[in-house]
Amino acid sequence: MTVYSVRHITHYSYKRPVAFGQHRVLFRPRDSFDQRLLDATMTIEPEPAQVRWIHDVFGNCIALVDMNGPSDHLRFETNIRLDHTPQVPIEFEIDSEALTYPFSYDEEEKPDLVCTIARYYDDPNGEVAQWAQQFVGAGATGQTGHVLMTLCFAIRQSFVYARRVERGTQTPIQTLQRRQGTCRDFALLMMEAARSLGFAARFVTGYIYVPDRDGSTTLGGGSTHAWCQVYLPGAGWVEFDPTNGIVGNRDLIRVGVARDPRQAIPLWGSYDGNAEDFDDMVVQVNVTTEP
Prior knowledge:
By secondary structure, this protein is of the alpha+beta class. Helices cover 18% and strands 40% of the residues. It contains five helices and 18 strands. The chain has helices spanning 110-117, 127-133, 144-158, 172-178, 183-196, and strands at residues 2-20, 23-25, 35-45, 50-55, 61-66, 71-84, 100-101, 142-143, 160-161, 180-181, 200-208, 225-232, 236-241, 246-247, 252-258, 267-268, 271-272, 278-290. The strands form five sheets. Strands 1, 3, 6, 17 and 18 form a five-stranded antiparallel β-sheet that branches. Strands 14-13-12-11-15 form a five-stranded antiparallel β-sheet. Strands 4-5-2-16 form a four-stranded antiparallel β-sheet, with no helix packed on it. Helix 2 (127-133) crosses helix 5, helix 3 (144-158) runs antiparallel to helix 5 (183-196) and helix 4 (172-178) crosses helix 5 (183-196). The protein is globular and about 65 Å long. The relative contact order is 0.23. The mean pLDDT is 92.
């Protein structure tokens, strides 16, 4: 068991005071058997008129923030502390009937999984599906765990991690053709590849612990991180981080899940003004452990 502390600061600067629309903040992890929330706080400058909490359609905790009036800056600081327990490898957890791919999901679970099995991005020439099929093998069958782990490690080894200042996520075809992207791009590629093989997959947003940020080969530290989950009978939703080749929840702090990356943005909002009124945005994330 490890106690993680996460400090996340986002500071917006504007060239003149602007009015703000409602902001949505996704930072509070849900308690689970593998991570137990100890504390969660949020500080906003200037002081907001109202902060209201809801659960979204996926059960994520969302803070809805309404501001008092115009300002030339907006600063969010969130802090969380949680107990974290790494999970065992998936080979020992999958039900026997699902150990070999392909398999069928239980009829009672299918209605709840259908939206995570369906593909949502165009693949007119079948590029993503064809790329995913190579990990199954020539006989179109294989060990389920091996298929997914090979897919995850292939992205880690064959694609180049590259930070991108533009907002949004590349389509899976763009990532496949460019052979580079961010953690969100890689998570979406693996999701759509897994879905093309009939797996249920969903997007995860959160944080990653990097023991030594300067000397580590782990990517994505110092900012929010993203990966995906695949649903396997007997094992449930299993974490796959294709950016770093991590299977299971080691060093991963899960905050929210969604069907698509656009539904799991850590901080989203608007301001009333011109595009040139925006000056700068600075993001700082620190993930540390406690003795």
